[in-house]
Design goal:
It contains 4 helices and 11 strands. The strands form 2 sheets. It has a 9-stranded mixed β-sheet with strand order 5-6-4-3-7-1-8-11-10, with helices on both faces. It has a two-stranded antiparallel sheet with strand order 2-9. The protein has 167 residues and is an alpha/beta fold. It has a single domain, classed as Dihydrofolate Reductase, subunit A (3-Layer(aba) Sandwich), CATH 3.40.430. The longest helix is centred in the first third of the chain and has 11 residues. The chain is globular and about 45 Å long. Bound molecules: NADP nicotinamide-adenine-dinucleotide phosphate (NAP). NADP nicotinamide-adenine-dinucleotide phosphate (NAP) binds next to strand 1, strand 2, strand 3, helix 2 and helix 4.
Length: 167
């Protein structure tokens, strides 16, 4: 299974100054829950934006600065590659795959995705600099849960799960 996991605002904003543009504790908990034990594929900038590597998840970091597949650390499990589409097949044999951004990485894998876990944040970020809007043509809405703005979440949001329609 390949899932795309994203949180964006009304305009598709996912990032600002190489950080998340919203503070949503409950959504981060959901992100952890849905990606746990999967192979997370992410861009080099998103990797650099993390405070620490994601625990209990293999990370495949996309960068043109290396050739082939390079093991950077085996605990936690971090790989770098300039050929993520090629190496996807090897990782997919072992575990589920989570495409976790940023924008170019979402676009690169969009046609291969079976499931979209989409957090739609009720806000319009000013001066955002990273954008991606999932395309749900050929997907069906399987689940939806709403969360109010509260002390842990600076905006309200809806988490939707979209599943690819079998052909
Ligand atoms: N809201 C969300 O759900 C979410 C999710 C993820 C990220 N974000 C945010 O998005 C922003 C970062 O995203 P971004 O779009 O600017 O950058 P990004 O996609 O994380 O990283 C871009 C880098 O990925 C590498 N890359 C891209 N295409 C590649 C390919 N085909 N093969 C190999 N490497 C490739 C390149 O690295 P090199 O330059 O090293 O070659 C490129 O500079 C941050 O603000 C982050 O917080 C938000």
């Amino acid at each position: 299974m390949i899932q795309l996991v994203i949180a964006n605002d009304h305009n598709g904003c996912i990032g600002k100054n190489n950080a998340l543009p919203f503070k949503l504790k409950t959504d981060l908990q959901n992100f952890k829950h849905v990606t746990l034990n999967s192979v997370c594929i992410l861009g080099r900038k998103t990797f650099e934006s993390l405070k620490e590597p994601l625990k209990n998840r293999t990370m495949l970091v996309c960068t043109k600065a290396v050739t082939g597949l390079n093991l950077i650390s085996d605990s936690p499990d971090i790989w770098y590659t300039n050929e993520p589409l090629y190496w996807l097949k090897s990782f997919q044999k072992q575990k589920d795959i989570s495409i976790i951004g940023g924008a170019k990485i979402y676009a690169l894998f969009a046609s291969l995705v079976d499931k979209i876990v989409w957090t739609r944040v009720d806000c319009e970020i000013q001066n955002g600099d990273a954008f991606y809007m999932p395309n749900t043509d050929n997907f069906t809405l399987a689940n939806e849960a709403s969360y109010e703005k509260d002390k842990d979440n600076e905006f309200g949001f809806v988490i939707q799960t979209w599943e690819k329609i079998a052909k």
